[in-house]
Amino acid sequence: MESTLGLEIIEVVEQAAIASAHWMGKGEKNTADQVAVEAMRERMNKIHMRGRIVIGEGERDDAPMLYIGEEVGICTQEDAKRVCNPDELVEIDIAVDPCEGTNLVAYGQNGSMAVLAISEKGGLFAAPDFYMKKLAAPAVAKNHVDIRKSATENLRILADCMDRTIEELVVVVMDRPRHKDLVQEIRQAGARVRLISDGDVSAAISCAFAGTNIHALMGIGAAPEGVISAAAMRCLGGHFQGQLIYDPAVVKTGLIGESKESNLERLASMGIDDPDKVYDAHELACGETVLFAACGITPGTLMEGVRFFHGGARTQSLVISSQSKTARFVDTVHMTDAPRRLQLK
């Protein structure tokens, strides 16, 4: 799958990032998201595959969003039999977030990116439009920290695994009212807190890379982004756990479903019999082969944002593969017209 789709999924996230970056700082978050979606869909429909969106904008959203259940790729089109051999057909599940951090783009802030994860059919957990309690940490802490433990206990374990003091640790938490007690506990334990307004996928992945000065992600964020993070962390060998949050009283805002009871019914209809189950990265991204790709829209911890020049743009992407066990940083110059100059850095 990697040899068939590797380069093309890079181009998918690159095109989405470039489209969205044109709207950076213009205060139009919906437009920044929509153009990224359209660019991503257009490029995916040029790939020789049969793809199905398992994580997208949600089945209750209207087009032009990439919605759950949407089929993409050349082999989903009406004349597919003419160009697609059923015996050689690549069927994949796709999780997408064309503009992760729409507010970050709209207000010119760091940390937004276009992101997707793919696996063979059935290889990604079909996360509902709920929230998820998340814990991400470096590989040395894998299977030592645990989302069921307190933040204080996890910080002690993490410090021991990394041969650091708790005071030397930095924990990323989404800046939300629901995290008031969590932030207070982390600070009382002695660790430092980096509050972010959006973009917890980047924060989760950063835990796997030394030198980012991010050592853990804690707290509640969107469940679909949790699966995308898990796909990347599985490839990188980092620690990731997620637990679905289905009670609107816990998250206080934005949860689909009017009541805890109706959300439990929805989970049951999706085949989720244990709503309180704690999932690890291998359960959220269980496929034999998992690929993750992201391209910076605005500058971030891992990647530069899109940089425009006369006649083109420059992007930086990250592609992670469980198959080749690689994490590739890809620097690309896109020449739309005859450029006046190509700047190296």
Can you tell me the overall shape?
Answer: globular
CATH superfamily of the largest domain: Fructose-1,6-Bisphosphatase, subunit A, domain 1
Uncertain ranges = 59-63
Structural class: alpha+beta
Number of strands: 14
**Could you give the order of the helices and strands?**
HHEEHEHEEHEHEHEHEHHEHEEEE
* Strand content range: 25-35%
Mean pLDDT: 91
What is the CATH class designation of the largest domain? Alpha Beta
CATH architecture of the largest domain, please?
A: 2-Layer Sandwich
The first-to-last residue Cα distance is 33 Å
Q: Helical content, roughly? A: 25-40%
Provide the domain count: 2
Query: Radius of gyration from the CA trace?
Result: 20 Å
Biggest β-sheet strands, sense, barrel: 8 strands, mixed
> CATH topology of the largest domain, which one?
Fructose-1,6-Bisphosphatase, Chain A, domain 1
The total of helices stands at: 11
Describe this structure in words.
- The protein has helices spanning 2-21, 29-44, 80-83, 102-106, 151-162, 180-189, 200-206, 223-236, 248-251, 260-269, 281-284; strands at 50-55, 71-72, 91-100, 113-120, 131-137, 170-174, 192-196, 216-222, 239-245, 278-280, 290-296, 307-309, 312-321, 326-335.
- By secondary structure, the protein is α+β, with helices and mostly antiparallel strands.
- The chain has 2 domains: 2-121 and 288-335, 2-Layer Sandwich (Fructose-1,6-Bisphosphatase, Chain A, domain 1); 131-284, D-Maltodextrin-Binding Protein, domain 2 (3-Layer(aba) Sandwich).
- The strands form 2 sheets. Strands 1, 2, 3, 4, 11, 12, 13 and 14 form an 8-stranded mixed beta sheet that branches. It has a 6-stranded mixed beta sheet with strand order 7-6-8-5-9-10, sandwiched between helices.
- Strand 6, helix 6 and strand 7 form a beta-alpha-beta unit.
- Helix 7 runs parallel beside helix 8 (223-236).
- The longest helix has 20 residues, at 2-21.
- The radius of gyration is 20 Å and the shape is globular.
- Residues 59-63 have low confidence and may be disordered.
